[in-house]
Amino acid sequence: MFVRNYMTKSPITISKKTPVFEALEIMKKYNIRHLPVVSEGKLDGVVTEKMLLTVSPSPATSLSIYELNYLLAKMTVEDAMVHKVIKVSPDTTIEEAALLMRENKIGSVPVVEDEKLVGIITVIDIFDALVKFFGYGKPGTRFVLEAKDEVELITEVSQVVKEFDVQIQSIVSMAKDNERVEMMLRLSTIDTEPLLEAMKKRGIKVNFYS
């Protein structure tokens, strides 16, 4: 799962001389909250809706409407953007990008290749990747299995899947605190009873299925 497969390619961009008001209008028009700031294809920085609103005058300001419009017209993205940008390459894994966002408390990361901006990946894109990874939205059944040994569990499950000629849509395993392994398995079938019976015969513990 790599960033290149889930990023927004050729994202909408602005220059650092773009007026703040214009940048806000672009975000509103395209329903986005993050804009890469570029110059000749190279990344200069990133600006978010929150940053732009922070530098904009408060609605409670005592300035007149004429003074307010004049001030907004003079303010540019350069006054609000982040210059030192955390970025990734198209070959960065989804989990690495997610960890970067989590550690730095940011909602997006620009994607750069050969010093050129080629895309942007956001928290929403990470969620989309996760949903696809777990196979949600496709007809099938999810099983949560448990065993002492991961390799043995995978071997047994593979035999059952082969026996019933069904496809594995996704498989995720995680070590539990009690030194056992829990596995989430999503199969391309809704006929669960024969599968459950076969798993029980092989000694596979099924904690949950839906």
Automatic annotation (TrEMBL):
Q: What is its EC number?
A: 1.1.1.205
* Transmembrane stretches, start-end: none
Q: Where is the CBS domain?
A: 7-62, 81-140
Q: Which domain of life is it from?
A: Bacteria
Question: Which of UniProt's keywords are assigned here?
Answer: CBS domain, Oxidoreductase
Name of the gene this protein is made from: guaB_2
**Could you tell me which Pfam families the record lists for this protein?**
CBS
Q: Which SMART domains match?
A: CBS (SM00116)
One annotated GO molecular function: IMP dehydrogenase activity
What is the protein's given name?
Answer: Inosine-5'-monophosphate dehydrogenase
